[in-house]
## 1
Amino acid sequence: MNYRLIGGALAAALACAAQPVLAQQAGTYTVGIGAHQVQPKSNNGSVLSGTAQLEIGDNVQPTFTFEYFLRENLGIEVLAATPFKHDIDIKGLGKVATTKHLPPTFSLQYHWNSQGTVSPFVGVGVNYTTFFSEKTTGALRGAKLKLEDSVGVAAHLGVDFIVNERSSIRVDARWIDISSEVKVNGTKVGKAQIDPTVYGLAYVMKF
C-alpha cells in the first residue's frame, strides 16, 4: 500500500482546507466527462501457494465525475466509469482469463487558485471495486474463476486548466488500493494485488 502518497494527499488536503477561501462556492457542483487508463502495478501477486505469478493488463474506458462543494473549494467527488476489462496472465503460461470491473471512488478534495488559469487540487477517499464477467481460457479453460470485491483507500492529484468561468480541461492521477481474493472452482487459490495508478483526461463543467 502506498502510505506515503496517501499521507501526503491527506496532509495537503487538510492544510489547504485551512487556507483563505477562493472562487469555488458552497453549493456549486461540477460534472466531468473524459477517459481514464487503469494501469495495475507490475507485480500483481501470486496464486497456487506462490507457484504462479499474476500479470494483469491495462485498460482505458470513458469516465464520469460529479463533485459537490461543501464549502469554498472543498468538495466531495464521485468517480464512475463504464466497465474496465483486463486480461489476466500467469507468468510462463500466458493469458488464462479476462475480467471486468467497476471502480466507483469517493474522494474529499481541495482546489486552490481556482481564479487563475491553472488550478491544482488534491484528494483522498475510498474505493469500492466489484469484479464480474470472469472468463477463463488457456491453462484455465473450463475452470470457474471468481475475483472477490475490494474496498480500499484512494489518493488523487490533478490540475484543472481553466478554459472559461464555466469549464476546464482536467489532467489527473489516482492511486487506488485494490486487493482481491482469487477463487478457482470455489476454492481460494491466492490474492490479486492490483493497486493501480489511474491516469485521466476530462472536460469539466461547473454549475
Note: The longest strand covers residues 118-136.
## 2
Amino acid sequence: MELDATASRHTGPRNWLRSVEWLIAAGLHPQANQTTLAVARDLARRMDYSTGHVRYDLEGTADRLGIHPSNVKRHVKYLRQLGSLAWAQHGTRRNVRREQGLPGYAATATVYAAVIPAVYDHALGHRIIGTGYGARIVRDYRQMPDTRTPATTETPVDNAPSEPVDNPAKRSSAPPSLTSATQEDQVQMVGGVTTTAARSHKIPSSPSTTAKTGSKKRATILGAAVTAAGMQLGDKLARAIRRRAPWTRKATHDQLRWVCADMGEQQWTEDEAVRFAVETGHAQAAGFAWQPDHPHRLIAAALRTADVNHQQDQVQVELDVTHSVAWEDSTAGREAARHASLAALFTAAETEPEPQRSDEDRLRARLDWNNWPDVAHYYATDPDDALDLYGVRLCTYAIRMDSKSRARQEVWA
C-alpha cells in the first residue's frame, strides 16, 4: 500500500511496535507469528524516529535474525497485509551512486513507512482526526486535574487534518501523527520557556503528588513486588491465554498482562495459566451463554480467591502439625508394635526395630501440597497411616484433586 492510498495513520517506531504486537496477539492475520514480530523489532530498531521511515535491507535483516531471506520477504508481506507498513519508496535498479557522482553501482533501496491501522485505534478507543496517512490521534485532557492559573487562557486547537502542527518557538512543523491534537478545553501555557520539557503535552503534577507516588513501589494484584522477569513471563502467559481462551479477548493485552503479573512472579507455565483461565471461564459460564465485558477482572478475582484459599490451607497445615498424633498412638504405630511383639515371641533372632516417625517427618511430608497424587495413592492403600503422616487437610485436598483429575480425563476421553 502506498502512502497516498493507505488508510493507516503515520506513527513513530515505539507506538508502531506496540501496535504490531497487539495486532499479532489479537490473531488478525492467521500466519503472523513470533518471526513476524522479530522482523518488526528489527525494523523498529533501524527506523527513523521522526519520519518513521526505514530501509528494507533484506539481506541484512536475514543475517541479523538468522533466517532465510525468503522468510523475511514473507513476514514483511504479512506486516503490509496487517496495515502496519506502507511503501514510502519502491526499490529500483537505478544506480544512485552515478547520480551522486560516485563510482560503482548501488540500486535504489526500498523504504517502508511505519503506519497504524484503524482497527487498532478502534479497539483501544482512540479518537482520530483526519483520514489516511495524515490522520492524528486526539488526547483527551478533560478528565485530568485542573492546573489553570489566572495567567492562563483557553485556546481552541486547529484540528485540520491536512496541516502540520505549528510551533511558534522555532517556526518548524512536526509530522502529524507524532504530534497529538488536544481538546478545546485544554489550557495552554503563556510566557513559558522554549525547552523541550516545557513544550511537552503532559500536564505537570504537583510536587507533593510526585513525591508520594514516586516513593511507592508498584505491586501486583496479590501485593507482590513487580520485577522485570515476572512482567516478561506475564506478557508471555497473557498471549497464551488470549490465544487459547477466546472468552478473554474482550480485554486488552495490557489488561491481561497485568493480571498475569502474579502468575509470572510465581513462575507459572503456559499450560498452568491457560488451565486456570479455562477453569475460571467454566465456573462463570464464560464463552457459552455469557461473554463478559471485562474478562480480566474475572481472572483477577479468581486469583485472589485462590490466594485466600491457599493461605487458609497453609494455616490448617500448621494446625495439623501442632495437633498431629504421635507415632506410638497412631494405628500404624500400634500395628508395628504388635508385629514386633509377635516376632519376639516366635523367633530368637534379633530383628531391626521399626523406625520411629517424628513430628519433623510429618512437618516435611505436609509442606509440599504439589505431591497430592502420591498422597491420594497412599491414602487408597493405607488410609490410617496416610492421615497420620499427611494430616486430614492434605489428604482431603489430595482426594479432591484426584477426583477432579479423573473427571477431566473422562471428559477428554
Note: The two ends are 49 Å apart (CA to CA).
## 3
Amino acid sequence: MAVTETAERRPAFKAVTLTDAAAARIRELMARADKPIVGLRIAISTKGCSGLSYDIQYAEEKGKFDEVVEDKGATVLIEPKAQMYLFGTEIDWVEDKLQSGFVFRNPNEKGRCGCGESFHV
C-alpha cells in the first residue's frame, strides 16, 4: 500500500513535556543567562536519601547524544544517562509563599525521600 500525501502524520513523541509555567520560566532563564546558551540541560545525579536527584544546568552547546525537546518556545536537553529515567515526565514550575522551583511529575519514580529532593526508580 502506497503512502499518499493526505496521510495523517502522528505528532512527534517528546521525551518530556513542559507546562506553560515551566516553559515560561525556561524562556526567562535562557533570556537572562550570562552567556549564550542553547537551553537547559537536565541530568540525573546520584545523591540524596533515595539515591537519585534531578540536576538542571545551563547548556552552552548540544551534547552529541543529548535528547533535545523544544516545547512552547523553550528548549530542554536531556543528558544521555538521564533519558531512561525521564521519558514521559511532565516538568512544571511552581511558586508558593515559601518556595519556588521546577517540579518533575515522573511516571518512572517508584518513591521519593521525605524531603522530596531525591527519588528512586
Note: The mean pLDDT is 83.
